[in-house]
Amino acid sequence: MSARHQQTHIPHDFPNRGENVPVGGTSAEEAYPEDSLRGLVARLETPPTPNASESEPLSNAWIDGIETRVGYIYDFATQTFLENGNRLAGIYGYTPEEIDSFPERWDSLIHPDDIEIVKEGREALLSGEMSTATVQMRVACKDGRWEWIQHDWRALTRNDQGHMIRTLGLVQVITPLALATQALRNEVSLNALCRTLVEEWVDGIFLVDEQWRILFANQGALDALGYTQAELHTRPITHVLFMDLGKKKEPALPRSFQKVTLRGAHLPKDGNRQKVEIVLRRLPGERVLVTTRDIREQLAAEEYTRRQAAYYRGLFENNPSGVAVYDTTLQITKVNPALRRMLGYTEKQLTQMRVPDLLDNQNRPPDEFWKHVIDVSTKPRRDIEVTLKSREGKGLYAHAAATFLPDTNAEAGQGIIIFTDISARRQAEQDLKKQSLLNDTLLKESAAMIGMVDLEGKILKVNPAVEKVSGYNAKELVGKTIWESGLVDPEELPRTMERLKKLQAGAPRVTAISRARTKSGELRIIQVHNTATRNANNEAESYIITAIDITEQQRLQHHLMEAIEQEQARIGHDLHDGVGQLLTGIGALVEMLQTKLVGTEQSEAGRIHELVRQAIQQVRQLSRNMSPAAIQNRDLAASLQLLADTVQTSFRRECEFRSDLEAKITDPTQGTHLFRIAQEAINNAMRHGNPKKITIALRAEAMGQAVMEITNNGSTFDCRPGQEGIGLRVMNYRASLIHADFSVTCPPGGGVRVTCKFPLLPSGDTPQATTHNKQKYKP
């Protein structure tokens, strides 16, 4: 009997017995003389008569059949027993003095689960809330036993405030009665539990005889099968239950108290089988208890576990990385094939090693790492890069990921460490580091100007060559856009933006001759190569601009071209004034000689005269080409018109010139180069294409640009880059000298188109570039 099954009894049907409870300050001696106190105690310990009056003290507290009971009187003012203190202490094997020496005195003997209800009853009596109280509780005896007692109190004397001064008590030892009551309650609970198991078990319970005939089925079995108790009675168990017996046809009766477990299925009325676990138990009285448990969820869990196990086994065996399983001492217990191949050891050799034994002495993790690897209180996964040592002694860079899996009590478990070969990655990182160092060195030491620009034109980085040529330092340029930096000549900004747009559209590389400005305002001629860095989708992420200062080169080339033009003009004049005059004289003499000859000799002299005449024409044409008077005193449009007329007259081919360009090209250098480009394009067409029509066109374009275009309908040729002949290279070179974009294309309809896009120079403003201590020149 436990304390929570007992109650504090405060009997309300007890009479107040006011005649026995003196109040108003009456002393105990006056109310109850000593003989009277002993009499009260004696009357408590005497069985009440059937017709006992209600004035008998605690007459309702008497329990029949109790052998040990003690009545007592206790004085709260002096904290002493007036009657039977020794007898009460003796029930528990103590003396009153021993009990008084305990920290809580008499309360020290009370069971901790019962102390609260004892204090509640006592406080109610002390304060006057109640006149009587009953408590059943456990008290510790000196020999270690717990005695159940029933303790009844009644207030004997109270003061003027109604507080209890003396109490009359009766203690009865009820241990036998309490134990019997508890046993009875246990039996009732057990019976109720058995009934619940049989009637409300969610799975089936069957009671069968030795012939396997059903004698009883619980409600769970009836619900699962869809039968009634009457329908199943005396039917064979095999009618409703399939047992997986293997090769056996009939189930064998289990031996006495033997438990046999099988797998099978319910065979319900509706025909839908349900897989169950079957347990057979032999009972006394020639009976067998058959229980079934629905295992569909269990089977699903087992199948899931099997698949998971197969999945993880496959991951372990087929993992391309080396995997080792280890215990709490780092001893290897299992390895996968990849680790065996990686290190060249057999599984037997590896399982005789510890994880640290696999590592080379170089790049070895500290001992603290291994402590954390098997410490269940730390994070479960740890990563580190190590060097493995193969059987041949070769070092192998690897990434190690260790995970420790503690068991349920977190005191043991096993760990998994995965080694991923990163030798190729490490080599690539080292190569990348070397390449990066080389690139940095090249970037710093390169004489070419190199800059990185984002998609919005903002400068991200420049090398020292940019600082040296421009006069700006990197801090002044980084963060600004190209057009805000002052590096680009204002007239070049539209063409610069156009080149970046071409890169963004997918062009692999854009090259041009451009003009730049230094911090001091000097004009520099630069050769620019623009490329883009691209992502995996071939989208531009940034631009790399490389430029070479060719100002001095342009100056020298300009002087060279001037010298070439002057030499050609001199040769042209010499041909015209020297060879041309001689041929003219020879022609006149031959003509005179022809008039004097007759017959065959006269006809032969005529042929000689014709050859001389043709030679004179060729010398004149060559003289005009080498020293074209057409462009010496005319603008470009007029020169090109004269060229078209000459082609039409000399070559008998249709040649048309069209122009919608309002501005005149008066710069002699620019005009000369453009005329020479047109002249070379026509000569190439006549020499290789045999066209029937040639068109020369001049037109204006936006952003201060103009285009000269020469088209013909002759034969095409390979226009791909790298297939250029000398003529095309010369034209391209001349275009670069005047900062023009030159291109040759072959339209789908046939023919050839030569295009030269050049800047329109403001009238009277011929751009000039300078170098230190060099004379000015026209680019």
From TrEMBL:
The keyword Secreted does not apply. Keywords: Kinase, Transferase, Two-component regulatory system. Residues 133-186, 382-434, 509-562 form the PAC domain. GO terms for cellular component: membrane. Coiled coil: none annotated. Residues 1-35 are annotated as: Disordered. Residues 91-129, 195-232, 308-350, 442-507 form the PAS domain. InterPro entries: HATPase_C_sf (IPR036890), HATPase_dom (IPR003594), PAC (IPR001610), PAS (IPR000014), PAS-assoc_C (IPR000700), PAS-like_dom_sf (IPR035965), PAS_4 (IPR013656), PAS_fold_3 (IPR013655). It comes from the Bacteria. CDD domains: HATPase_UhpB-NarQ-NarX-like, PAS. It holds the Pfam family PAS_9. GO terms for molecular function: phosphorelay sensor kinase activity; protein dimerization activity. NCBIfam families: sensory_box. This is PAS domain S-box-containing protein.
